[in-house]
## 1
Amino acid sequence: MPDYSASREDHIASFGRLFAWSGGGLLLVFLGFVLVDSLPLQLLNPAWQLRFTNRMVNTSLLALVGFLLLHLGLYIEPANGFLRAQLATARQWAVIVVFAFLLLVPLQGFATWRALSQAQGNEAMQRTMLGERVTMIRQAIEAATSPEDLQARFSRLRAPRPQLPAAALSLPLGELKRSLLDELQKTETRATSRIGGPAPTDVWALGQGAARVSIAALGFAVAFAAGAQRPGASLTLLQQLSRRVDILLGRRAKPNRRAP
């Protein structure tokens, strides 16, 4: 009978290398997506911060699957020293990834707050500019001594400047002023109604996005912590955290057991 053992071992080894290289490829795709979408860097722009956190979360499944495939490749071919070294490097980098995901939570909250504050600031600035504009026009109307003087005062205002129609120059000054002030009041009311802060639906969408990104970031941090390993450590980050929690709970349980 022909011996298929060597061929079978070769097939198993090829599958191990396939999984490992596929995992490395997915990690490169993840890095490419995040880096390309992050350019140009606008670290202080809340819109850029929100876009960055969403991109990180939306593409992190690629990185997680790639990380798992590296482990699977070494599990299938444990004697491959190259795969072992690659996995060790990936585990060390995963420590940084864990802390990056944890930092996404406050970054998302800060970016959401900045976006809302910026929208409210824009609303306040628009109202202030409108009030100043209306005040200057009203003062020009009230201080005018004749239709010609009013036209001259309008010409000295910042653009866009009000213009009096030719027919208005023949009206009595009192009637002209009352007409212009009434029209100015209506215009101010219409302009004020168009100025508004963020809509409730926009605020709700920002809140949902912040919650989604925060929950996903914590979940991915735990998932990568299960395989992340610092240089020289024998346990993963998650195992170290679990051991510390067990020790802390054990210390708290001892005084409770001693109390009758």
## 2
Amino acid sequence: MTSTLEPTLRIPLLLLGSLLLLTPACDTGSDWVTQSTEVESLALTPTEPHLERRLHVVARARPDTGAKISVLHITFETEPRWERPEAGGSDVHPWYRVRLVDERDGQVVDERVTVFGEGSTPDSLSVGPDVDIEDEISRFEATYRLELDRQGPPSAGTLHVNWSVITEALTDADDLERVEVLLTQP
């Protein structure tokens, strides 16, 4: 049987057919269980340059399900915005630092710093722990302290910060209803 396709079309069509066959083979059978907090707005001023928030994170299999978690991502997202003083303020631009502390051992697990400049404001600064899961687990629990700091005097103005947390746990697609992520502020 001879092919009626031109030789120049044969190879691209074979490649396309191969890709279509490979796509279902790439499905790992895993999916993400996601939970996030509401966005909270805070204000840091030169006279009150430090704020802290605590968050207790639990990612777990529901009782008697046998479900496992293979990857866990926890991201604390902050969106700082500097409001300059209306008049008579300093020319000093404030720095802003977000730090994440694991309260289980008191260690700083991540930190980001920026300085507000002329016309440049960072959209967001994110921090998060490296959750090392070597083998699949059925439970993870930790309390984190989010520390927000800004430069005090002589910098002026108010630093408005919106913050939230998103947590994602990877599990088998069949176990999505069997895994839960709980985020609470103690």
